[in-house]
Write a structure and sequence with these properties.
By secondary structure, the chain is an all-alpha fold. It has 10 helices and 2 strands; from the N terminus they run H-H-H-H-H-H-E-E-H-H-H-H. A hairpin with a 3-residue loop joins strand 1 and strand 2. It starts with 8 loop residues before the first helix and ends with a helix.
Length: 283
């Protein structure tokens, strides 16, 4: 989210350029290509995110089992694409594999427990939202009440809401942020930025309604804006807490002007699953 400081023109220009390049490309993949391409993108994100999480764990002085974590997350995402592979089976098998893997690579009980716990935390933080993104994209292929292409509309709506919220928080927090939101967790985040985040979340949902997702009701716009806004802030604070403990500002420098993948995906950790279940039960 935002920092309590004036906007750095160079960083903002780099951030804006990256967004202008990535957003149309992402929109094309989501809207016009088969779900398999989107799944491949998710697998790439999980692969890179696994290494970022491994690096973060290392800075915390803890272990992280990258190989079983990545395989477990990839299988979990595949289970939402192919309903014949139950997600609970993937999680159960993954639990056993991680336990066996820990016996092979670790000899110290304490380090084994810590690495195992962090591995499952990584799966929850990265793998669960990634799997639900796949579920959203492929939702119109299942026997739900959707229509052809609705999965793409759901995914892009979520991304627009999150992206605009992050942008609003960054701009208004940098320019007007005076009151700290959670000083013990992330001193740079402000209440003003959080409010701007929510306002821009509603704006994003409204844009989606009038641009491409006309099926959205005003109730949907309000609920999606509120849920994505609040859970996005929570996910951001969770990652900020980890980075503060590790003594770093960004999880990596992979995305110019934006930091690492974890810095951009933190808002989806809680919002993606909730968006999916809101679609299933209330839309």
């Amino acid at each position: 989210m935002e920092a309590l400081m004036a906007i750095n023109p160079r960083k903002f220009a780099l951030r804006a350029t990256t967004t202008l390049i990535f957003v149309p490309l992402f929109f094309y993949i989501v809207k016009y290509l088969p779900v398999g391409y989107f799944f491949s993108l998710i697998i790439l994100v999980l692969f890179l995110g696994t290494f970022e999480f491994h690096s973060l764990a290392g800075k915390l002085g803890k272990g992280f089992y990258s190989v079983p974590a990545f395989l477990m997350m990839a299988a979990l995402a595949a289970s939402f694409l192919m309903p014949t592979i139950p997600a609970h089976l993937v999680l159960s098998a993954g639990f056993v594999i991680v336990m066996l893997y820990s016996l092979l690579v670790d000899r110290e009980i304490q380090s084994t427990l810590e690495a195992t716990a962090l591995t499952f935390l990584g799966v929850l933080y990265l793998g669960i939202p990634a799997a639900y993104m796949v579920a959203l994209k492929s939702s119109d292929a299942h026997a739900y009440h959707g229509y052809p292409g609705m999965g793409a509309d759901l995914v892009f709506t979520l991304f627009i809401v999150v992206w605009l919220g992050d942008t609003g928080a960054y701009l208004f927090g940098s320019l007007f942020g005076k009151h700290k939101l959670a000083p013990k967790i992330s001193p740079g985040k402000s209440i003003e930025g959080a409010i701007a985040n929510l306002v821009f979340n509603f704006a994003g949902a409204t844009i989606a309604k009038f641009w491409f997702f006309t099926r959205l009701s005003w109730q949907d716009v309000i609920v999606i804006g509120l849920v994505v806004g609040i859970t996005g802030i929570m996910g951001d604070l969770i990652e900020s807490m980890w980075k503060r403990r590790a003594g770093i500002k960004d999880s990596a420098g992979l995305i110019p002007g934006h930091g690492g993948l974890l810095d951009r995906l933190d808002s989806f950790a809680l919002s993606a699953p909730l968006m999916y279940y809101y679609f299933i039960y209330f839309m």
